[in-house]
Amino acid sequence: MTSIGILGAGRVGTTLARTLTAAGHHVTLGRRAHGDETDTPYAQGTAIRYADHATTARTADIVINATPGHSTLDRLTALRAELADKILIDVSNATHDAPDGLPGDLCYPGSSLAERLQDALPGTRVVKTLNTMLFMVMTTPGALTTPPTAYLSGNDERAKKTVTGLLGDLGWQPAWIEDLGDITTARATEAMILVVPHIIRRNGLRPFAVSLAR
After folding, report:
1. Which is deepest, 12, 43, 142, 213, by most CB within 10 Å?
2. pLDDT digits (tens, 9 = 90+) for 23-38
3. In a domain, 208, yes or no
4. Greatest CA span in the chain, whole angstroms?
5. Taking Cα atoms as reference points, which of 157, 93, 83 lies closest to residue 127?
6. What is the three-class DSSP state of 121?
7. Is 181 left (phi over 0), alpha (psi -120 to 50) or beta?
8. How far is it, in rounded angstroms, from Cα 76 to Cα 71?
9. What is d(CA 58, CA 134) in angstroms, rounded to the nearest whole number?
């Protein structure tokens, strides 16, 4: 049983919160301002608790970043003390929006959001994963006709092992998880977001993942 805090109460955060709660974890869903839970319709009907970002990060053993990637670095740098000695799972992609609102250019070309987070939060163990798929695949990977891939990037091997266990609670089989190496490898998976808007424009929001085929 793990205490998990999720920063970001949109579709990604609440989808993860529902599934992790159903798996038996104690989940707190963090919003920028604590308020009535009816403000977050995706999470209704669950045992999820709610708090502001600082409280969510401070009281959790593991924190998941599901905030908008373009503003993540500023938001989480402000939580340096609360995130100290924690595992931070980063599932966001940092992009500038294209005119149609879909992901456009990368915010950190030649680097990655995960690397910037690790540099800004040296006392936190950052692990990048689940950022190469539409949000619904994160918690229902077995629903795709082709097995998807969840890539892992991070400097701490024990942290990645812990995250691998949580991925199992989300329905990911071990054969579908690919450990790429240290946190610098996140720049490769974050760059994969550039193919996503083109697929969405042609096919709509049908579930898919950018996966490794063997």
Report:
1. 12
2. 999 999 998 764 444 3
3. no
4. 47
5. 157
6. coil
7. left
8. 9
9. 29
The owner of tokens 């024990």 is 158
Q: Is residue 48 part of a domain?
A: yes
Among 191, 197, 211, which Cα is nearest to 115's?
191
Query: Number of folded domains in the chain?
Result: 1
pLDDT by residue (tens digit) across 50-75? 999 999 999 999 999 999 999 999 99
pTM, two decimal places: 0.93
Q: Residue 18: give its domain's CATH number.
A: 3.40.50.720
Q: Is residue 68 situated within a structural domain?
A: yes
Distance of CA 61 to the CA centre of its chain: 16
Give the residue numbers spanning the domain of 46. 3-203
Determine the Cα–Cα distance for residues 35 and 9; give it in Å rounded to an integer: 12
Tens digit of each residue's pLDDT (9 = 90 or more) over 157-201: 999 999 999 999 999 999 999 999 999 999 999 999 999 999 999
**Tokens representing residue 192 in the block:** 């994969």
Q: How far is CA 148 from CA 41, 139, 140, in A?
A: 28, 12, 10
